[in-house]
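JOB MANIFEST
job_type = single_chain_structure
chain_count = 1
residues = 434
[input]
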Amino acid sequence: MNVALIVIIFIVGLFVAICLHELGHFIVAKRAGVKVEEFGIGIPPRIFGIKRGETIYSINAIPLGAFVRTAGEDDPTVPRSLAGKRPWTRFGIYATGPLVNIFLAFVLLSAFLALPISTVAGNGLMVNSVAENSPAEEAGIKPGDIIFEIEGQPVRRRGDVQNIVNSAEEGKEITLLLLRNEQVEDITLKPELDPESQQRKIGVWLWWNIVSRVGEDSPAYEAGIRYGDTILNINEQVVYNDRSIPDALCSVEEGEEINLVLLRGGETVSISLANDGYETLPGVELQWVDGTHIEQERLPVWRAVYLGARYIIYTPVLIIEAIPLIIESPDMALVGPIGAGQLTVEVVRSSGFSNILFMASIMSLGIGIFNLLPIPPLDGGGMLVAFIEGCRRGKRLSPRTVRLAYTIGTAFLIGLVILITFIDIWRLPRGFGL
């Protein structure tokens, strides 16, 4: 997909998410009796505005979201002011914007999960390589073996092996049916728990092909393809059967670079060679899993909604678990608007247009969670002040204390925005490596 189109869709999505955030504040403030002086789309200077009742609805010149301007935001003496409302009323008004973003993220994520997705399925999966000292190595599994059944359950898709292994009784040996040299063999092994992922593993890397021969004088050999490699994709198109290679090569103009991603010893290797009008990879012979094809899958709506809600609910846990990664690699973990746009482009180009919904949900969720941080002048900062005053039975914090908190918080946020923007710009040339 064209990069410019993806960027435009991203900007529109970001704009809508921010507008809905402010719309949430606007509706609840109105219902709470707060005087809303202006609801603006975009950032001033104002292009034009229409006054309806006591509120001006405006369109502004800078298309960066929206804003709500209420009477007496920090002056409780102003009639019908925001600051003059009770603490728990203010808490609700501040909370509504982030909650709207979180709900929007849930809707978009559920819609994404309910979409039909294309998956590769076949009569088993082929072993590319076996981890040292793993259950698979001890059981004698070798590269080129095809696993087509585990514990009596057929293996058709990439996730099947992990799902079946994880569902097996803990500590119990499992039986695999392999196809090796056109002979079916039974192999028994006991999976081991991987402490990093907390999943049981047998120690194999799987795909649907393996290089059975490569001519040493061929362009493919000179480019770096070796016996035992697995070809994962060609120019970002998944390779899953013998027909998928010519299809991928046809998308590359003669004279342009053919970019391949290989699986070798459990690691991915990227290589390239010039396209000399190839209809297949020169000098390369591949062994394939039979019957591999693309098929459509769709989750039931109730399941998509359940998984969408589950992801949203567990997001705080995921954030806490990601703190070591943020500390270790802030350049990859801290993402601002520029980085989010770049990540959206990479995800959509590598995984398809439907992932724009997924990225929009993550973007809206990020806006919601960020605004819940208890740092003035974010919504979370206003919620914190309202919460403290609510716990004090309405006794207000001193104006000096509130002003100091807002000054410190604003300075911190400005510094954070500068840092994240610098990281986003620094990351632009090298990307996220998807």
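[summary]
The first helix runs from residue 3 to 31.
The two ends are 16 Å apart (CA to CA).
exit_status = 0
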